[in-house]
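Customer escalation, tier 2.

The customer says the design service returned an amino acid string that "doesn't look like it belongs to this structure." They asked us to rerun it and document both sides in this ticket. The original structure tokens are below, unchanged.
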């Protein structure tokens, strides 16, 4: 019984370490600091209406503060960009956005990244596979 648990802990640790190493190579889409406010608002509206997850920037969301057009646009732009699999042109928004190589997440506001989603899916798959083995070995020993 202890061996499957040890395998699960080992798997989790290796995936966590790999997650940190992989995320360093990803990109995010953020609002340009020199963008005009009205242009940002128009682009923000477009991103939210076209598939971005804008719930975290609503008044009750984890990314509502700071309550600025630039901060909200950055989150929405990045959500759109990641959902479009970082396709060419998906981080432009009529010149109001740019690609960043550093994670813009802050506090409890986590910006999505394709690498994080991939690692989560791998982690979840590993947990399910390992739990399945644990259940089988427990049934076998009973």
């Amino acid at each position: 019984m202890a061996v499957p648990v040890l395998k699960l802990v080992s798997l989790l640790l290796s995936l966590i370490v790999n997650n940190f190493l992989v995320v360093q190579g990803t990109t995010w889409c953020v609002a340009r600091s020199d963008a005009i406010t009205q242009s940002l608002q128009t682009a923000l509206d477009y991103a939210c209406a076209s598939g971005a997850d804008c719930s975290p920037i609503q008044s009750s969301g984890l990314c509502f503060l700071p309550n600025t057009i630039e901060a909200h646009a950055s989150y929405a732009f990045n959500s759109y960009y990641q959902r479009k699999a970082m396709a060419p042109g998906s981080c432009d928004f009529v010149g109001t956005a740019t690609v960043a190589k550093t994670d813009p997440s802050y506090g409890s506001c986590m910006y999505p990244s394709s690498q994080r989603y991939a690692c989560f899916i791998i982690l979840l798959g590993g947990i399910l596979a390992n739990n399945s083995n644990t259940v089988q070995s427990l049934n076998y020993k009973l």
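Tier 2 assessment: The sequence is consistent with the input. The helical segments are 2-23, 37-49, 69-83, 114-141. The beta strands are 28-31, 97-100. Sent an explanation to the customer and offered a walkthrough call.
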